[in-house]
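User: Structure tokens for this complex, please. No commentary.
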Amino acid sequence: MLSIQHLTVRYPGAERDTLSDVCLELPEGELALVVGRTGSGKSTLLGSVNNLVPRFTAGRRVGRILLDGADVTLASPRELADRVGRVGQDPLAGFVTDTVEEELAYGMEQLGVAPERMRVRVEETLDLLGIAHLRSRALTTLSGGEQQRVAIGSVLTLQPRLLVLDEPTSALDPVAAEEVVALLRRLVHDLGTTVLVAEHRVERVVEACDRVVAVLPDGRVRDGAPADLLPEAGSVPPVLELGRRLGWAPVPLHVRDARRRAAGLRSRLGPPPADPPLPAPVADQGLDARGVLVRHGRQVAVAGVDLAVPRGQVCALVGRNGSGKSSLLWALHGAGPRQAGTVRVDGRPGRGQVALVPQTPADLLYLETVAEECADADEQAGLPAGSTLAALAELVPDVDPGQHPRDLSEGQKLALVLALQLAGSPPVVLLDEPTRGLDAAAKATLTRQVAELARRGHVVVLASHDVEFVARTCSRVVVLADGEVVGDGPVRDVLADSPLLATQVARVMSPLRYLTVAELLTAAGSPS
Amino acid sequence: MSRQTPAPQDLPVLDVGVGTVGVRLRGWSALVVAVASAVALALLLWPFWLPARSGAAADAPWLLALLLPLVVLLVLAQLTEHGLDSRTLAVLGVLSALNAALRPTLGAGTAGVESVFFTLVLAGRVFGPAFGFLLGCTSLFASALLTAGVGPWLPFQMVAAAWVGMGAGLLPRRARGRAELAWLVGYGVVSAYAFGLLMSLWSWPLVAQAAPGAPGPLDHLPGAPAAENLRRFAAYALITSTAGWDTGRAVTNTVALLLLGPAVLAVLRRAGRVR
Amino acid sequence: MPGTLRDRWSLARVPRSLHPAAWWGWSLGTAAAASQTTNPLLLVLLVAVVVAVVSLRRGDGPWASSFRLYLLLAVFLVVVRVLYRVLLGGGEGGAVLLPLPELPALWPGGLRLLGDVTSDAVLQGLQDGLRLGAVVVCVGAANALANPKRLLAAVPGALYEVGAVLVVAVTVFAQLADSVLRVRRARLLRATPAGRGVRHRHRVVRAVVVPVLTDALDRSLQLAASMDARGYGRQAGTSRGRRLVTGTLLVTSVVLLGYGAFAVLSAALPTWRWYPAEAAWAQLDPGLLVLLAGLAAAALGFRSAGRAVVRTRHRPDRMRAAEWTTLLSGLACFAVVQLVARGPEAGVLLPGVRAWPSLTPALVLAPVLALLPALLTPPPALTGAQLPRAAAGGLS
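Assistant:
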């Protein structure tokens, strides 16, 4: 189907090749998962397939690309539109029109497909994606998962044999991501479409994929079975990690396989050692919010929530989209609306003592270099010059102060905003979906940073969908639903017993309440 | 599928230079823009050359309201004859939307078009005269579409804004830093008054149509010597807009360009060269 | 078309929205008719007809509610026109309604402010203001009736790119408004001590404008990539010959239109009589022919410029019987007024301020013609947002 031969790519002004001597053969009807660290060249590889790299991005590319045996090396992306369908990360940013039906028809209009055929294909695609009821809806009113399905549909109408997706689920919540992965699986199985998909959250796609293409830091690419290649790319789902560490062969990819293999382990091991009890809230110490009520018009987002978090504790807010996590964080900070309730920090009104890092941290950045941003924060907080820059260097050592903030990686941007927000050393730190767009390494760094904040006595509250991250990072979990607290307790109690929120290790080991690979390995006595 | 491994020296090489956002203004495009601008200006100045003839003065604004859009469309057709590359098209669309979206943000004291102006001047400067011309047209048309505000005033606003954008693109290319900012601020002031004058020129014959028999002192007198009408128009413009709105617009332009100019220029230039 | 006349009528009544060009043609026709007269009776009739058509045939899209603003604008224009006469004089004569002191001259040549307000001045202002207002209402009707997005979808091939820019602008606008809100909200997070003065204001505006702009431009890059990958891009390379033809046609057309307008307005060319009669309708201004030639050149130029494009439309609007009826009714309305203006009763269109205005049967026919779309076109297809209210008969 797709054959890439000796592909080497270098962008203008770059000092080294982003991809070097890549050879890849992708047979018809396969789903291949492309993995690699942020900035490793995943997007470059995907963009090369339909020649957006280098025709759109500029650069020098050596090598040959064959589609179904035809040499398309020099074709323009436009000529390949009906052979390679490409879907980006943020569906909304790629929409040209504003309603579902028009978006589906756009590509066909460009290629001059006859109106009658266009009509039929739009109808078929609507049914294939199960979105016929959304046909005349405005795209902005759709949920993230629906938007991504429309984006996939908008290239499917051109009936490409190969679909290329660049992190299609990274901006989605778990449920929406599940919908998208299920759709991909159906395309591969029912229509025989070949799919090439890049993804950070490997655990979402690994079950559906036939092979893994790993883009290595030096720009080379290897492909093979998931179990062999995922570790090399530095993104390993917990089940796989567990299997590798315990020497299981074949290494399980699914919870089901791992659970079968772990039967012996479950009978051999006792329950995990008890966690230290959560410290009881102390009066006039830490964050103390009572009766917080947030309404947007008639809709109640947060319905009278009480939340007390002592200093040094890391508390997670979990719950589906729209359950009020963000509204609660913004109300705690004081920048968002709050119709009733009090927020006190160390016994005093909370205003000015709370830092919040929003979902899209880049919204806070407006100067031209990292150093300027830091100097601005110093000035605002009345700190001696250079303090924030020093704090940033502690968080992430490899940031160049002269860089444009927008050119940083997601993890670096997050760290920068965190450093800026910590400039006045507020006792309470709130993080809204901090793991969005982070790769495994960046998440590990974030876990360390949060632990360090807690050690210094900050209160940390973070909202997240990522249960694996929560299990590694937090000591307490608060579950929100419909704006109310429906669960609150130590992380193990809340996550291990829930069918939805359980981590992969918890599912493998249930009813034993292990959460992370690390603690299980310690208990099993294998070197970690 | 058989796997063939060619010797690396036979491999095709695809070397693509960094593209730029912008539209060419040469050859036919330049000619059409020049001729159309001259014709449009001559038509806009009809109150000064129109002879006294019954009915002509009443018909002129309406005839113009039909012809001017056509002339604008002809120019747009020529400018996009080669096709816009996708990036230029996207930047045009996004900046047009931005002009419409920024209006309410910059808040009170910024009446209507001013925010459009300052981004228009900066974008014209960065992306060139033809882009400025297109952006002037599309910005005003987009915001008219979004507010369902398409009316007889629109073609005149579009032409005037297009000239403003084009003029910004024609400022000396070499100037950078303080000199550039000085040029832009100077141009911002001049274009604010020029835009106001053009709009007054449109409204004057409509609002101050000569009353038969006893024309008022500011009324347009069809067939009177150009100097006489010019005097009347100057008084009309001064009273209705130049002293008030236009000065406000000039001040807003100046302040916005001084405060935001360098930052926005940097952002636009960063977007103009793609990675 | 199968079936009886009755079947066909029922089919034609199936709710749908008309081709936007039909509504624009109709509204420009009525606007052109209104621009020809200061007769308040005719103007009021025309406005009433337009309001009736709008309230019967507009849909429930967001653009449909803009009509009220046009009505307000029309009222505002009438008031401005009258105030202008009161403040700055002109049209003196008739009874003094309100004696006001006259302020001294401010400008060489006798600019004065205030002075006696006379009935002639006020009536003059009213008549002219009414004409201006009526034209605005007619154009506003098109804004309310025609779906602006369908209008963009109907642009000729030569203007495809410009249409695409506007489609993108409309699409991105909603997202940008969100982005502005988000950034403004985020700004509250950055510990800015309350401050005053230019420096503080600078910081505030910059902290909103720069992230929104950067975000928007980053977005435009992704959008462009998505468009490229989905086949956007004109067939490469228009030939040299084609460019020559297009350029020549466009320049010729601009020159002809400009000269034609000049010739028509200043009567520069001697009148040409095409029929042996003295009546005004038997004479033709050759300037009109020049204008027509310019229009023809423009049409050919558009065709030539759009030749290279191969694109199709999903569910294109077509010009059907109802569309032609609408378009022709607007043009017929204008034609009737134009015929009257060239006939012996032309004075009725421009009555003085001292006599009560009157109407002729022909002039009553004009608004009646413009009313036809309210009866002969299918009702609008509603998107459903306001269905219950509309079904209850309440199109407020």
